[in-house]
Design brief:
It is a single chain. The protein has 16 helices and 15 strands. The chain is globular, with a radius of gyration of 25 Å. The chain has helices at about 20-30, 45-50, 55-70, 95-100, 110-125, 140-160, 170-185, 200-210, 225-235, 250-260, 280-295, 350-360, 370-380, 380-410, 430, 470-485, and strands at about 70-75, 80, 195, 215-220, 240, 245, 245-250, 260-265, 295-300, 325-330, 345, 415, 425, 445, 460-465. The chain has three domains: about 20-110, Winged helix-like DNA-binding domain superfamily/Winged helix DNA-binding domain (Arc Repressor Mutant, subunit A); about 140-385, Type I PLP-dependent aspartate aminotransferase-like (Major domain) (Aspartate Aminotransferase, domain 2), CATH 3.40.640.10; about 385-490, Aspartate Aminotransferase, domain 1 (Alpha-Beta Complex), CATH 3.90.1150. Mean pLDDT is about 85; it is low at about 125 and about 490-495. It is α/β, with parallel strands linked by helices.
């Protein structure tokens, strides 16, 4: 079928922070205003993606969403059309009021909207930023499959798939308590452990349990934005504390405490997210002393403790003196598979009881099968063996990525080799000075401006090497060099 005219769309002035939202809002507005008339044919997803320079999956996703809402209709082997009967036009004024939920629902913040859209895009296989994710190719699938089968058979034979403790299955809590005691010097009982669906759920539960009326939450100036969104969604005012190459700036924290009431501070001390800085021991001890003096909680997000490449990593805050106010949050997602969705909270029993009460309202209990599988693998030593194996692989990738940055960029960039984790924090300020840089090629690097919602000029990038093999690391860094070394004299780089 020939089209008399090519339908043009313009996204520049459309509301929305993501391309998905911009396209969704543009199409909806054009239909409501009559520019796209009922029955008119829309461009194919590939054609529209090329026109707008967006991923085809984004267009397909928007089309599917608008079809589900009744704005569009897809006819097999014909294409996508504007519906003959539009959702709003088919209702009377009184009926429109009945179905309009705007007055009775709370709007999400802009940050939550962006985070949600990122999750939806990931579900539709749209390439997202790799800022230190594990390599799914290293997951021991056969071992997991065998263990799942054996656990499922055992549960079926003994009828053990009913409701259980909302704090999580006893076996996994016991295994995690052993791990924290033996590997991280933490002295905690099974009753001080609560199982959650990953560290983000642990952070959200903490934001629910802590009282926003008693003070603000302090976060590092560059931080994990989903945590910030969780705190804000539960009424907290978020204050930012400065960072340097040793992590959280304790002197600036003192100034904040002198001027504000603070309920808690959220920190990533082991490998600061995103800068990878490790909080020094003297600052850790001072932070713990301040928590007792000013009576605030410390939310310690220990998101990748397992992947530390030095022989003697600094122990967690929760293992040190004066750690009574520490809530330790961890995850097994980077160890085995993010899809397992198993994390944990370690804190005093009163905090754990409150966490379990909140879980009753939203989850009742987690995935008993996955929890028992993980407990079995931990007790058999398979988890420890897998960590030891993958730690060597990630350390090799870290060293290789560092060498490639030096080879391709020379003195134009600088970085401090991270003691652990799956990303490198690279200073590119020499290359961005006087330039407008909004994005980077590929998906393995993110600019420092990504980790804050304030307006700053990008000075660093976070390069995720964990999910890449050697060839992929080289290709990704070569793409970066081609984009960043524009107008840089050849003699400025080392051969």
């Amino acid at each position: 079928m020939l089209r008399p005219w090519k339908t043009q769309l313009w996204l520049e002035n459309s509301p929305g922070k993501t391309l998905h939202l911009k396209l969704l809002n543009t199409l909806t507005a054009d239909i409501k205003e009559g520019r796209l008339t009922p029955g008119s044919m829309l461009p194919g997803s590939r054609s529209l993606a090329e026109q707008l320079s967006v991923n085809r999956k984004t267009v397909q996703q928007v089309y599917e969403e608008l079809e589900a809402q009744g704005w569009l209709i897809t006819r097999p082997r014909s294409g996508t059309f504007v519906s003959e009967v539009l959702p709003e036009l088919g209702l009377s004024q009184s009926d429109k009021h009945l179905v309009n939920m705007t007055d009775s629902t709370k709007s999400a913040s802009k940050l939550v909207e962006v985070l949600y859209q990122d999750a939806v895009n990931l579900h539709h296989n749209v390439a997202l930023t790799n800022d230190g994710t594990p390599d799914s190719r290293l997951i021991p699938y056969e071992l997991l499959a065998r263990t799942y089968r054996r656990i499922c058979i055992d549960l079926s034979r003994h009828s053990k798939l009913g409701y259980s403790d909302p704090k999580g299955c006893f076996e996994l809590r016991k295994s995690i308590a052993k791990m924290l005691s033996g590997d991280r010097f933490m002295n905690c009982s099974v009753e001080q452990i609560c199982i959650v669906r990953g560290s983000q759920m642990g952070i959200y539960l903490a934001s629910r349990i802590l009282d926003s009326k008693k003070g603000s939450i302090v976060m590092e100036e560059l931080c994990y934005l989903p945590a910030k969104a969780a705190f804000e969604s539960n009424g907290f005012n978020v204050l930012k504390c400065r960072l340097d190459d040793k992590g959280l700036d304790i002197q600036h924290l003192r100034e904040i405490l002198a001027e504000h009431s603070v309920t808690a501070i959220y920190v990533t001390p082991h490998h600061q997210y995103p800068t990878t800085a490790c909080l020094s021991m003297d600052r850790r001890l001072t932070l713990l002393e301040l928590s007792k003096t000013y009576k605030f909680a410390i939310l310690e997000d220990d998101y990748d403790h397992e992947f530390h490449y030095e022989k003697n990593p600094i122990p967690p805050l929760a293992s040190l003196p004066n750690s009574e106010n520490v809530v330790h949050i961890g995850s097994m997602s980077k160890v085995l598979a993010p899809g397992l969705r198993v994390g944990y909270i370690a804190a005093d029993t009163q905090f754990i009881e409150r966490a379990a009460q909140e879980i009753i309202l939203i989850d009742r209990q987690g995935n008993a099968v996955s929890e028992l599988v993980l407990a079995d693998l931990m007790e058999s030593g398979e988890v420890r063996r897998h960590i030891r194996k993958t730690r060597k692989e990630y350390e090799m990738r870290r060293n290789f990525a560092a060498a490639e940055f030096i080879r391709l960029f020379g003195d134009n960039i600088s970085f401090k080799l991270p003691t652990g984790g799956m990303a490198i924090w690279v200073d590119i300020s020499k290359l961005t000075k006087g330039r407008t840089l909004a994005d980077l090629p590929g998906k393995d690097s993110t600019l420092s401006s990504f980790y804050t919602d304030t307006q700053i000029d990008p000075s660093h990038l976070r390069f995720g090497f964990g999910a890449l093999n050697k060839a992929e690391i080289t290709l990704s860094i070569e793409q970066l060099s081609q984009a960043l070394l524009i107008n840089i004299p050849a003699f400025a780089t080392k051969p």
